[in-house]
Amino acid sequence: MTLWAVLTSFKGRINRLDYWIKGAIPLGFVVLAPVVVLTIFGHDDAALVVFGALALAALWPMLAVTVKRLHDRDHPGWHLALQLFPVFGQAFAIWLIADVGFLKGTYGRNRFGDDPSGAFADVVLEVSPDALITVGGLTKYFALTRGVLVSHELGQVHAVDDVSLEVKRGETLGLVGETGCGKSTLARVVTRLIEPTSGRIVFDGKDITAWSRRQLRPLRRDMQIILQDPYSALNPRRPVGAIIGEPLRIHKLGSKKERRARVREVMEFVGLNPEHYNRFPYEFSGGQRQRIGVARAIVTKPKLILADEPVSALDVSIQAQVLNLLEDLRDEMGLTLLFIAHDLSVVRHVSDRIAVMYLGKIVELAPPETLCSHPKHPYSGALLSAVPVATADAEEARSRRIILHGDPPSPVEPPSGCRFHTRCPKAQPLCSEVEPPLAAKGLPEQFAACHFPLTEEEIERAILRPRES
Ligand SMILES: Nc1ncnc2c1ncn2[C@@H]1O[C@H](COP(=O)(O)OP(=O)(O)OP(=O)(O)O)[C@@H](O)[C@H]1O
Ligand code: SF4
Ligand SMILES: [Mg+2]
Closest Cα to atom 3, ligand 2: which residue? Predict the structure, then answer.
């Protein structure tokens, strides 16, 4: 019997004691049944569920009085709505208590997102004055859940695990690694586009780890993103002028006329014809569309641009144009760039430093010349030996390439110790037992997370240099 049936049977006597007694029976059933079920199934934080149940129990009579008053107006529309409302209300109450309370109590997260309190991890950060972004112990786990009404957590995707790094002002930091290693997730967590599971983030001298969405909003104009696919990133029904000017409109920057002028200025800056202000994205080529994406990213004069594989969807000839454009922008606007790519040959030409990622961890960090001529981590060596170079002897090239065997392990259950040990040609028993820290190795400004870094001889074998002519 629904609560509504109880209410209507006591119409007119809503303030009387018997209403409350008879109303309390189904009410108690609705709110307490999930508690009993969850307790039987071994829920280890019943306090949260009980709290939710009590809150609903307190609210329900108030709702009942409102429902009764509305019903007394006798409008035909109310009858259907009021009959349905308590039924949905009861279903919602059960779901709320079971799902939200259960998951939050057990895992510190629920389907509304992670518990931001996790972000206040006890990480001590040293922030240098020339750093635009500093992160410490940054971690992002995605919960793998099953179920619609009541979710069960099956595991966690360790997308980014305990990453600490800094990006200096005016620097281009290249982030490279194979697909699924966590590059995009790291970039999004760093800028709080998604919530970290733990760790600390300092942007432009401000610790933004625990900032609310509202606090972050003004900061968003200082962090813009260029997406990988210029075809899906642009709204096909809006003219490019409106697309490029959208961040100005969102952040309420300038009058309509000023915004228009700024958009035209930026279009010219990135090599688009300002006369094409009212054209639609389908009227542009792939390279031009990526310029539209770049124009939209720089229109608010941000401090940081996240370029998430900005050229991987483009032809090689057009890739070079867009890369040159990004370099020009960096020089002229003093931008800081986090440049993501899975191809080392792309990042090496635009980056001041390169971070190599493997399965959620930074495994090597070094300037491009150092990384490309003296890699210390075997994974960097493998990435590098996969970069095609002009050499006289193709057979020799093949024989010297480091081939990684096996698929990348699952990020749900990453290997113990060094995550690369299941595929590393140099792995030894220690590698699966002790996780190597990211520490200074080799040349200045070079850091690698490896117990047995590549030797000069191995580097020589792994890397094929172009033939000297
Ligand atoms: N919203 C999500 N929910 C669950 N898992 C996710 C989510 N987003 C990413 N992942 C997982 O996190 C891991 C890292 O994903 P991410 O997109 O960061 O990788 P990537 O290095 O950018 O890959 P790519 O080069 O293909 O873009 C992957 O295993 C991915 O499946
Ligand atoms: S720690 Fe061991 S397994 Fe990991 S990269 Fe170094 S040698 Fe290979
Ligand atoms: Mg990605």
Answer: 421
Looking at the structure, do residues 322 and 370 belong to the same domain, yes or no? no
Q: Answer whether 446 contacts ligand 1 (Cβ < 6 A).
A: no
Kindly state the tokens that stand for 306: 């996240």
The CATH number assigned to the domain holding 339 equals 3.40.50.300
Tell me if 196 is assigned to some domain. no
The pLDDT of residue 61: 60
Residue 331 has what pLDDT?
Answer: 87
**Ligand 1 close to Cβ of residue 291 (< 6 A):** no
Question: 128 lies in a domain?
Answer: no
Tell me the whole-structure pTM to 2 decimals. 0.74
What is the C-alpha separation between 48 and 57, in angstroms, rounded? 14
Examine the pLDDT at 158 and tell me if it is beyond 80. Answer: yes
What atom of ligand 2 comes closest to residue 430's alpha carbon?
2
d(CA 127, CA 215) in angstroms, rounded, equals: 21
Residues 345 and 222 in one domain: yes
Average pLDDT over every residue of 202-219: 90
Q: What is the mean pLDDT of residues 149-157?
A: 72
Domain boundary residue, one of 107, 141, 172: 107
Q: What is the pLDDT of residues 60-86, one digit of tens each?
A: 666 666 666 656 666 556 666 666 666
Nearest residue (by CA) to ligand 1, atom 14, is: 182
Beta bridge partners of 157: 142
| Of 301, 326, 351, the domain-final residue | 351
The ligand whose atoms approach the alpha carbon of 227 most closely is 3
> Residue 210: pLDDT above 50?
yes
Do residue 369 and residue 332 come from a single domain?
A: no
233 within some domain = yes
- CB of 141 closer than 6 A to ligand 1? no
For residue 424 and ligand 2, the question of a CB distance below 6 A is answered with yes
Residues 301, 415, single domain; the answer is no
Distance of alpha carbon 83 from alpha carbon 157, whole angstroms: 43
Residues in a beta bridge with 109: 114
What was the pLDDT predicted at 118? 46
> What per-residue confidence (pLDDT) applies to 163?
95
Question: Percent of the chain scored above 90 by pLDDT?
Answer: 40
Give residue 196 CA to ligand 2 midpoint distance, Å. Answer: 27
Residue owning the nearest CA to atom 5 of ligand 2: 450
Cβ atoms of residues 242 and 260 within 8 Å = no
* Ligand 1 pocket check for 180: Cβ under 6 Å: yes
436 CB within 6 A, ligand 2: yes
Average pLDDT, the chain: 79
CA 307, distance to chain mean position in Å, is 13
Question: How many domains are there within the chain?
Answer: 3
Range of the domain at 259: 215-351
Residue 384: CA count within 13 A, CB half-sphere: 27
Least confident range from 72-76, 269-273, 302-306: namely 72-76
CA-based nearest residue to 191, from 216, 171, 166: 216
- Is residue 200 situated within a structural domain? no
Is the CB of residue 184 below 6 angstroms from any atom belonging to ligand 1?
yes
Residue to mutate, 377, 432, 451, ligand 2, most ligand atoms under 8 Å from C-beta: 451
